[in-house]
Write a structure and sequence with these properties.
Strand content: under 5%
Largest sheet: none
CATH topology of the largest domain: Growth Hormone, Chain: A
CATH class of the largest domain: Mainly Alpha
CATH superfamily of the largest domain: MFS general substrate transporter like domains
Radius of gyration: 23 Å
CATH architecture of the largest domain: Up-down Bundle
Order of helices and strands: HHHHHHHHHHHHHHHHHH
Number of strands: 0
Distance between the termini: 10 Å
C-alpha cells in the first residue's frame, strides 16, 4: 500500500487558512474565560454589576455565534466561500480590536456580541473550503489536521490567556487575534472562489429569522437559566420561543421556494445520524469536562493551572493521531470509528465515577517533580482511554458529515452541525445542573442535618465548590462527589447512546487511488 502523499501547495494554503480562521473562533471561546476576573476589576461599568458584566461578556459572544451560524453557512454557499471567509476574518479582527480597546463594560459586551456574529462566518466557511478543495482519503487527512488543530487551540486557550493576562494585560487576550487574522487573510490569496450557483441570490430571510429564534432562543435560555439558577422567568420564556421556532421551522422549510435549510438534506441517512450523534456526544463532552474541571479544583483542591495540565494527555493523543484517523476512516469508512470511539470515551468517563472524595490533591508550585499517585491512579487512566476514543471519533464524524451532502451545501451542513454542537451542550448542562444541585443538597442534608432549602445554607454551600466561611468541608466534599459521579454516569450514557446511533451510519469508504489498486493487485 502506498504511503500517504503530501498535500499539494494549493491544499496547504487552503488548510492553513481554514485552521487559522476557525482557530481564532475556538481560541476566543476559551481564552477570554481566563481574562474575565481581571476584566471585572479593571473595567468601569455604569449598568452591570461585576459578575453580571462578566457573564454577558462570555455569553453574549456564544449567543450570537450560535444564533447566526446557520444563516452564515447558507450565505457562505450562496455568496461565495472565499468571499464570506475573508469577510469573517476582517470583521473578527476589527471586533477583536474594538474589544481590546473597550473603555467600559457596556462597550465590551456590545463588541463581544458583534465578535460572535463575525465568528459565525468563519467556522462553516473553513470546513466548506476544505470540502471543496480535497477529495477522498486526502479530504479525510485534511479534516484530521483541522480537527487536531482546532482541539489544540481550544485546550490551549486558557494557557495562552493566562500568560497574556499575567504578563501583558487582559486586553491582549483580544488583540492577539489581529495578527492571527492577518496571517489567515494572507493565506486566502491563492484560494479559488466557489459557491452554490444553483440557488445563489435566493437567501431565505424569513427562514433565517425563524432559525435564529430557534437556535438563539434555546442557547440563550439554557445559558441565562444556569446563570440565574433557574429563578428568572426570562430563561423559560426564551426556551419557549426557541422551542416554538424549532417546531415551526420544518413547516416553513417545506413551503419555501428556496429554503434556508433544504429538508432533503435530512433525507441523507449519514447527515441525520451524524447530527443526532453530535447532539448526544457533544452534550457529554460539555458535561464531562465542565464538571470534571469543577470537581478536581473545588473538591480535590487542584489549582487552575494544575487542572489545565491534568487534561492534556487526551488532547495530545487527538493532536498527534487525528490526521491518521481521518485518512483511515476515509479509506475504510467511518462507521467502526464512530462506534468504537464513543464507547471508549464512555469507558474512560465511567472510571471517573470511582474517584473517592478524599483523593489527595496535586497542587503545582509545591515542589512536585512528578504527578502524585492520586492523579496516576484515578485521573490519568480514564483520560488516556477517553483520549483514544475521541481520537477515533472526531475526524471520522466530520468526514461522514461533510461527505453526506453535495459540495454546494457544505457550508450549510457545517453550520447546522456546529449549531447543534453548541446548543446541545448548553441544554444538556442546563438539565443536569438541576439534577446535580438536587443530589448535592440532598446528600449534604443527610450528612449534616442542615435545612438546605434555607437561602443562607445555599449561600454557604455550592455543588463542587469548597464550603464558604468554614463550613463542614468533609460533608461538602462527599456530597459534591456524589453529584460528580452522577454527572459522569450521565456523560457515559450520552456517549453510549451516541455510539448506538452511529451504528446506523452508511459506510462510504473512499475509492482507492491508482497506486493503491496496483499495490493490492500485487
Amino acid at each position: 500500500m502506498e504511503r500517504d502523499r503530501p498535500l499539494t501547495s494549493y491544499g496547504r494554503w487552503v488548510l492553513a487558512a481554514a485552521i487559522l480562521g476557525s482557530g481564532m473562533v475556538f481560541l476566543d471561546s476559551t481564552i477570554v474565560t481566563v481574562a474575565l476576573p481581571r476584566i471585572g476589576t479593571d473595567l468601569p461599568s455604569f449598568r452591570f454589576g461585576v459578575l453580571e458584566g462578566q457573564s454577558y461578556v462570555y455569553s453574549g459572544y456564544l449567543l450570537t455565534l450560535s444564533a447566526l451560524l446557520i444563516l452564515a453557512g447558507a450565505a457562505n454557499d450562496h455568496y461565495g466561500r472565499k468571499r464570506m471567509f475573508q469577510t469573517g476574518i476582517v470583521a473578527f479582527a476589527a471586533t477583536s480590536l474594538l474589544c481590546g480597546l473597550a473603555p467600559n463594560m457596556e462597550a465590551l459586551v456590545l463588541f463581544r456580541v458583534l465578535q460572535g456574529a463575525a465568528g459565525a462566518l468563519l467556522v462553516p466557511s473553513s470546513l466548506s473550503l476544505i470540502t471543496a478543495c480535497f477529495e477522498g482519503e486526502e479530504r479525510g487527512r485534511a479534516f484530521g489536521y483541522w480537527s487536531g488543530a482546532s482541539s489544540a487551540t481550544t485546550i490551549l486557550g486558557p494557557v495562552v490567556g493566562g500568560l497574556l493576562v499575567d504578563s501583558v494585560s487582559w486586553r491582549a487576550a483580544f488583540l492577539v487575534n489581529v495578527p492571527v487574522a492577518l496571517a489567515a487573510l494572507y493565506a486566502t490569496r491563492p484560494i479559488l472562489e466557489s459557491r452554490d450557483t444553483k440557488s445563489a441570490g435566493h437567501l431565505d430571510w424569513p427562514g433565517s429569522a425563524i432559525t435564529g429564534l430557534a437556535v438563539g432562543g434555546l442557547a440563550f435560555g439554557a445559558i441565562y437559566g444556569q446563570q440565574r439558577e433557574w429563578r428568572d422567568p426570562v430563561a423559560f420564556a426564551a426556551l419557549g420561543i426557541g422551542t416554538l421556532a424549532t417546531i415551526l421551522l420544518p413547516f416553513w422549510m417545506a413551503r419555501a421556494k428556496h429554503p434556508l435549510v433544504p429538508l432533503e438534506l435530512f433525507r441523507s441517512r449519514n447527515f441525520a445520524v451524524t447530527n443526532i450523534s453530535t447532539f448526544l456526544i457533544y452534550g457529554s463532552l460539555y458535561v464531562t469536562f465542565y464538571f470534571l474541571t469543577l470537581f478536581i479544583q473545588g473538591v480535590l483542591g487542584y489549582s487552575a493551572a494544575a487542572a489545565g495540565v491534568a487534561g492534556l494527555p487526551a488532547t495530545v493523543l487527538l493532536v498527534l493521531f487525528s490526521s491518521r484517523t481521518g485518512a483511515l476512516s476515509a479509506r475504510f469508512g467511518p462507521r467502526i470509528f464512530m462506534v468504537v470511539g464513543p464507547l471508549l470515551m464512555a469507558a474512560g468517563v465511567l472510571t471517573f465515577t470511582l474517584i473517592p472524595a478524599d483523593a489527595a490533591a496535586w497542587r503545582l508550585g509545591q515542589g512536585e517533580l512528578l504527578p502524585p499517585l492520586d492523579y496516576v491512579t484515578w485521573i490519568l487512566p480514564g483520560l488516556l482511554v477517553f483520549g483514544a476514543g475521541i481520537t477515533l471519533l472526531v475526524t471520522p464524524l466530520v468526514t461522514a458529515l461533510m461527505g453526506s451532502v453535495p459540495v454546494r451545501n457544505s457550508g450549510l451542513a457545517s453550520a447546522i452541525n456546529n449549531a447543534i454542537s453548541r446548543v446541545g451542550p448548553q441544554l444538556a448542562g442546563a438539565v443536569l445542573f438541576v439534577a446535580i444541585t438536587a443530589v448535592f443538597y440532598a446528600g449534604l442534608q443527610q450528612r449534616t442535618g442542615l435545612d438546605t432549602s434555607r437561602p443562607e445554607i445555599r449561600a454557604a454551600y455550592a455543588p463542587l465548590n469548597p464550603p464558604r466561611d468554614g463550613g463542614d468541608d468533609r460533608a461538602s466534599r462527599e456530597a459534591s462527589t456524589d453529584a460528580f459521579h452522577l454527572a459522569m454516569f450521565v456523560g457515559a450514557v450520552l456517549l453510549a447512546a451516541g455510539a448506538a446511533v452511529n451504528l446506523a451510519i452508511r459506510n462510504t469508504p473512499a475509492p482507492l487511488s491508482a497506486g493503491e489498486v496496483a499495490a493490492a493487485a500485487e
